[in-house]
Amino acid sequence: MKKDKKLLKNGKRIDGRGIGDLREMEAEAGVLERADGSGYFRMGDTEAIAAVFGPRELHPKHKQKPQRGILQCRYNLAPFSVEDRKRPGPSRRAKEIGKVAEGALSSTVFLEEFPTATIDVYMEVITADAGTRCVALNAGAIALADAGIPMKGIISACAAGKIEDTPVLDLKGEEDQGGQVDLPIAMNADTGEVTLLQMDGMTNIEEMDEMLELAIKGCEKVAKKQREALMKTF
Amino acid sequence: MVKNMDEKLVEDKAKVLPGDVIAEGDYLSGQGTYKEDEKIKSKFLGVARTEKSRIRVIPLCGGYIPQEGDKVIGRISGIGPSHWWVELDSPYDGYLSISEGSDEFIDLDNTELSEVYDIGNMIYTEVIKVTKEKDVKLSMQDRICKKLSGGRIVRINPSKVPRLIGKGGSMVEMIKDKTGSRITIGQNGIVWVSGGDEDLAVGAVKTVDEKGHEKGLTEKVEKMLKESR
After folding, report:
1. Whole-model pTM above 0.90?
2. 3-state DSSP helix/strand/coil percent for chain B, to nearest 5?
3. CB–CB of A230 and B60 under 8 A?
4. Which residues of chain A have a Cβ shorter than 8 Å from any chain B Cβ?
5. Looking at this predicted complex, what is its ipTM?
6. CATH code assigned at B119
7. Do B91 and A37 touch (CB under 8 A)?
8. Looking at the domain assignment, is residue B173 inside a domain?
């Protein structure tokens, strides 16, 4: 990273966005034929496809819960999604993101309606340019609704961050690498329940509040896009 | 009760998403909805319906979960010492005991259960009990329950089953009438077609599955059946 490259110039970012602007978004439901439900989401140069299978019988049997179902998530960066080819297979990072995505999505699903069963969500990032977990979650939420899974609401995710001491919304690749903070959140935009909140970097409480506010507004915009996509199906 | 608090926010037959508020206040929460802070919200991507003061959401997609009283088509997948296991295209297999499986006495010393229903056989059966843990009990006692031999099996989305049956059975009766086939529909989305012009009948069933959400479907299918004659 060159030091002289400015990420912010009179309130404009390297791709011309303002501080509180999201990248261009695209969303679609029902993109895969063989899955029970599927979704596609794009934010700028980050794209993800998600497939949902189930509710279906859960194996191995010792994982089954007699009172409720479980939700299992897989997050994967495709080998061709990043600049240098990524070694295929689950890495520590991918497993961890799958785990937190499970928590983010399962809190809205009525899992008690499917004792012993599982709902599987497979999220594949096909192009990565920062904010992959958010885009993957957005696609995953569309796929869950498309699969006809009973839910309390639809989860929307988006990241805020800090670059050059300024809180901004939805970091792109260069901003993520050259920035100071990355703060992805996922939430039910209708009720305001936050189901995922992670952060890396250093900040203080005031900036944290500002970033959260930005991210929550971003999630509301994402939710609108997801709604559009789902309304177009059927 | 405070009457002016009640408000229906979505009109009848409108499309809703999970979490959408359909009504507030003095309404009853029916199938496919849940109540939170006096608001009735949708659980599914579906169509909102109001009957008197009860609000329901009919899902547009989704798998099959067995319910008591459903007539379903299943495949025998396993045989135990005195029961059969039946696959129902759902996360839960059905349990068919020997006493529910046959009207006649089966002498276990001299008969194999596979002589009655063998693995791979398709049966039209009734769900008589579903426990909280989703143990599903089946029965063949009802007179219309039977072993399905010959014919063809078509799988459609379970949410399209009401469409395929139509109002008072209008859709399926029309397909039967035009093709001369016998058609049996399971609530779990498995359809058995036998006799007559099977190709045409299967085509019609698949059309209903694909275009189930469109308006004037019965006319469309009728036209399709007429043209292919």
Report:
1. yes
2. 25, 35, 40
3. no
4. 36-37, 54-58, 66-67, 108, 110, 113-118, 145-154, 188, 190-191, 227, 230-231, 233-234
5. 0.89
6. 2.40.50.140
7. no
8. yes
